[in-house]
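Researcher: I'm comparing several assemblies side by side, and this is the next one on my list. It has 862 residues spread over two chains. Same procedure as the others: predict the full complex and return the structure.
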Amino acid sequence: MNTPCAHIVDDDEAIRDALQWLLKTRKMPCTTWASAEEFLDAIGPDWAGCVVLDIRMEGMSGLECFDVLRARGNTLPVIFITGHGDVPMAVAALKNGAHDFIEKPFNDGDLIAVIQRAMEINAEHRQAQSASQAVSERLTLLTTREREVMALILEGKYNKVIADELNISMRTVEAHRSRIFEKMSVRSAVELAQMLKGVSL
Amino acid sequence: MDTSSLPASHAHHWASRLPYAALALFVLLIGALIWLTRVHDEDSQRHTLISDVLWMEQSLQFQLDRNAAQLAQLGPELVVSDIAPQTDARLRQMLRAENGLTRVIWLDGAGNILGVLPPLSEAPAGNDDLGLQAIIDPDLSRLSRTIGRPVYGPVYPAAGGGHQFEVHIPAYSDSGLLGISVGVYSLEGLLARELPWWFTEKYRVSVTDSEGNEITARSRVAPLSDTHSYTMPFDPPGHGLMLQITAYKGDIRWIPVILMSSILALAIILLWSFWQLRLQLKRRLAAEQALRGETLFRKAMEDSLLTGLRARDLAGRITYVNPAFCNMVGFSAQELIGLRPPMPYWHPDHIERLQEIHDMILSGQGPRAGVEVKLRRKNGEDIDALIFEAPLIDASGRQTGWMGSIMDITERKRARELARQQDDRLQATSRLITMGEMASTLAHELNQPLAAISTYNSGCLNLLEEGYIDPLELREIHEKIARQAYRAAAIIHRVHDFVRRSEPKRERIALNDVVREAIELMDADARKRQMRIVLQLAPGMPPLTADPVMIEQLVVNLVRNGMDAVAGLPGERRVITVTTQEKNGNLILRVTDRGPGIDADHAKRLFEPFFSTKQEGMGMGLNICRSIAELHHGRLAFEAGAEGGAVFVLTLPVEMETNPA
């Protein structure tokens, strides 16, 4: 279930059904869950899209469910559905990293917009995540010596300086450099630096 | 210890010792009297003894002298050879027993015996001349001859037993000595004859010689007195003879004995009774001490009691108060005792009720469980007291008055009041919370179907915009929408049902009575907040068909609002006026306060639910009031007061149009 869709978690069958119907008319994929527990049991780490969580539910409440998701390191954007009296709770959840909240009864446009935005964010996030994953995979191909050389390259040092520091010959440094560029599939040190921005070695 | 009581106790000491001193004196005097009487008695006995002895001696002397004189006279006639018959007769006369002479012998001048009378043969022992010769002491004859006077000889034992002595008397004639006549006395005879019977009855008479040996004695078998004895020389005859007279123990002399013994008996009785008196006194003293201790204990108990005690006589006059009561009301016992109602500690606002209670108690119908009253201390503080009255019964079982125990329950009441207020506030808060909870639940429940409906609706609109319409799908959605609408309606219905449960009861009530009851409920609170509630109730109003509890609640709410409005204002403005009147088939109740009034903005929103100008208000009071008014087909309206306060006007129709429902 890694096609992006909106996961609607609400204990009220009518609300679930109505939301599903509404999203269907907008051609938006969605799945519904009758309780937070059911949803948490099913969710996998590679799920995409967003979660629409009713705050007030029988059994585990929306807020508790949100906490569990965050504790598991899941980064799916969460949109809370609140009644009139639950707004302060929703605001608190927002401060804790929820994506947004929408009040019942829903304004159709707002609801769709919020869900769409959340799904976009999730898509971007997933993209970034897959890129950094590729870099990590390439990094694992490097030998220890190559890593040392790469760290010095990233510091912007010349081959001669690197050779001096590591007590190796210029030629060896050059060989390392070309192997690194090849493994990381980059053509220049600048490209390498850009790729590794934000990645701790 | 109080020093002033010292001399008193000293005097008391003296006074208490006085009877003992008197007693000792009495015993001493009685003793002295007895001793004196005894001494006097002894004296007089001794006196009698001596005079008796003297008399006896005199009488013996006289007898001897007379005999001697007669013998001297007869002497010359005897010494002749022949004795004349008359001389003989006289001699015989002399020898009569009572004279003590046993024999007369006459001698011539040479000492030869001339004659003897009675003759010797008549002598008791029948001795011969030799014996006679032997008894005549020639020395005595010679001596008497020489001195020419009677001479007595010593005593010697007589031949026939007994003792004798002689007297030699010379007989002279004109020519000289004629002879000597000798008289022989028997000592025993002398004593026997010469002493009269009464003397020998009283005394033992004995004769002793110069060595103290008893020669003869005249005595009876009777105990001798060891004190009354007298010894004197027996002269004549002399020769160291002594007469010893000893009194017999006299007969008991009954009169002084009775006298003395009665005095003694009386004294003993006196002492005994004195002793008894002392014991009695001791017992009484102990009893008194115990009583005093008991009294002191009781007094201490009464004084240390925290409950006030007050006794009244049957007429209602105060006869006793304990310190706790004085402390409670602030009046001293002197100020209170003897007072009749109305008492100064009665609360001025409750005098009538207190008088009523007082009369009830005096007529014996006082409440057994005690009665709560309002009193006022001397310093003006109000106190709440709980009074229990019980009849005061004296020792003879007669009721003499009433005993009241009074407890100060001001603090307790205040605490209770405080607790009640807190409880009220708590309840209000919990009501508020419950209401919020209810409202929130209701909102959520209604939100669910509404949200569903609007969401379905949005979907439909989306489809319409796209121009794609599947009638079947649309129908299905609309059925769903209808279901949600029914769901919402069901929720509303449930709420309505819940509200319907508090429909008013219909009773025939008098509005004025309900108002009075409501004001009574508020009275304590108003007094505490120093506010006045003035009632102006129109008489003769028709009865109303209404729920008395609801109407009472309405009045209470309006009056409480008024009281809140005037709180903190000067005294003359802390007045709430409640008026009733009948007008056009309506009963009109007005609650007027003289508070700051309500400005126009607020006035518009007055009856809105959850609108309140008060800090703790939940904004339901007036809303509820209006609901009640409407339930009774009446109206509740607000007007600005003529004097700047607020006026709430409740209009209720007398005849309610029948409810169509």
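Model: For your comparison table: The beta strands of chain A are 5-9, 30-33, 49-54, 78-82, 100-103.
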